[in-house]
Amino acid sequence: MSETIPTVAGMPAERAPGCPFSPPPELSRLAEESPIVRSVFTDGHEGYLVTGYALAREVLADNRRFSSRQELMHHPTIDFREQFGDEIPPGLAGDLTALDEPEHGRLRRMLTGRFTVRRMRMLTERIEEVTAVHLDLMAEQGPPVDLVTAFAQPIPTMLICELLGVPYDERDMFRGHVENVFGGDASMEERMASFSALGEYNAALVAAKRANPTDDLLSDLTDSEMTPEEHGGIATLLLAAGLDTTASMLALGVLALLERPEQAAIMRDDPEAVPGAVEELMRYLSIASPIPRVTLEEVELGGQVIPAGTTLMVAVNVANRDDARFADPGALDLRRHAAGHLAFGHGVHQCLGQQLARVEMRVAFPALLRRFPDLRLAGEAVTRASDASIHGLTSMPVAWGE
Amino acid sequence: MRVTVDRDRCAGSGMCALTAPEVFEQDGEGLGTAPDPSSWAEHAEAAAEAAGLCPVGAITVSTGH
């Protein structure tokens, strides 16, 4: 017998106006009621939302019972079966996020050596240079400046381009496509078109690298056991993930700090506190949309007996605000020990690029606040649409000086 | 005291090398190792935290004699 839990339709995604940092209020309310909630998806599927920290961690850790294969999943708010019938296509070649073991591990192991803590720390000096260049450009341009396009986007973009070997001068093209895919403002047709365009761009790029290798990660993968299709798919995944997520964290993170001068002072003035401060911003902002999993067998989870083939949406944003795990979870406290947050996910799929993201944030946040100690919001920060895959800002005017 | 990393489970996230760099490092494939037993006892607390944070539960810290 399953315990009685709340039931909701789809996946609450609407954030409260003026609260860009908080998860959707309905989701937070459900999380307070129960760590697992029944959800009737748009296509009629009876799925679940996982809202509690302990259950979220349990599901993400158990890739034997909880699969990542998208062809087995239902979407909480889009009826893909209307479009595809019962044959939902699997993830594209190279899309690690949609694979289970052993296929996932086979590809991931070709990449993990490239994203180690040590290798990413070796990029610190280059990240400092790239950050300094963009801070100089901001100073030259003079206030007001859009922090998203002047700082939050270009720094991670330039770094991922250098690391992968993607031409930086083509950034406006692929940035636009990534914005369409993740941003939430584009129509489904535009999203699909941009997704295809990104795939074609990276297939061509990877073909060129395979023919004439250069000194970069994408060229190095030519020597691995990847097929050309997997190679191209991985290029798309790494490029899109590297561009968009850190950019969102930088923009939203600065906005959060500007609203809390005492927290900004910690990031600006206490170098020892910076690594922990970045973890707390990750926890507090939790920019990723809920992570889907599908049961491969009947499971018992949080007092519920869940049949095989059921989709669960793991809402890491509310899980990271579970007061059973983090005291006073709604407060941004850069001095708290936030390690263990689920903002990079958990389990075998945990973010591959997390050590790069950490180094970028550890450099960029304090550098900005030191260069412009009186940085302030100079207008309205505009948030992405509520159904964006990655929560973030589309613009954020800032000023400094007189 | 003994610290082991199950290399078959390891997903190369780097959480161990990040959390307890005195005990753990990542090899050329990005997989976690705890190569220096002389560091284990002094940094037992950090090693235990790393074991708890490991996304795939690949780390075992045993305190037996």
UniProtKB/TrEMBL annotation, chain A:
CDD domains in the record: CYP105-like (cd11030)
Biological process terms in GO annotation: antibiotic biosynthetic process
Matches recorded under PANTHER family: CYTOCHROME P450 YJIB-RELATED, P450, PUTATIVE (EUROFUNG)-RELATED
The family this protein is said to belong to: Belongs to the cytochrome P450 family.
Gene source species: Actinorhabdospora filicis
Keywords assigned: Heme, Iron, Metal-binding, Monooxygenase, Oxidoreductase
This protein's name: Cytochrome P450
Residue ranges of the region described as Disordered: 1-26
Glycoprotein listed as a keyword: no
GO molecular function, a single term: iron ion binding
UniProtKB/TrEMBL annotation, chain B:
Alphabetized Gene3D superfamilies for the sequence: 3.30.70.20
InterPro entries, per the entry: 3Fe4S_ferredoxin, 4Fe4S_Fe-S-bd, Fe-S_cluster_ET
Coiled-coil annotated spans: none
Cofactor: [3Fe-4S] cluster
Organism domain of life: Bacteria
SUPFAM superfamilies, A to Z: 4Fe-4S ferredoxins (SSF54862)
Domain 4Fe-4S ferredoxin-type, chain residue ranges per copy: 1-29
UniProt-listed Pfam families: Fer4_15
Keywords: 3Fe-4S, Electron transport, Iron, Iron-sulfur, Metal-binding, Transport
Function as written in the Swiss-Prot or TrEMBL entry: Ferredoxins are iron-sulfur proteins that transfer electrons in a wide variety of metabolic reactions.
Name recorded for this polypeptide: Ferredoxin
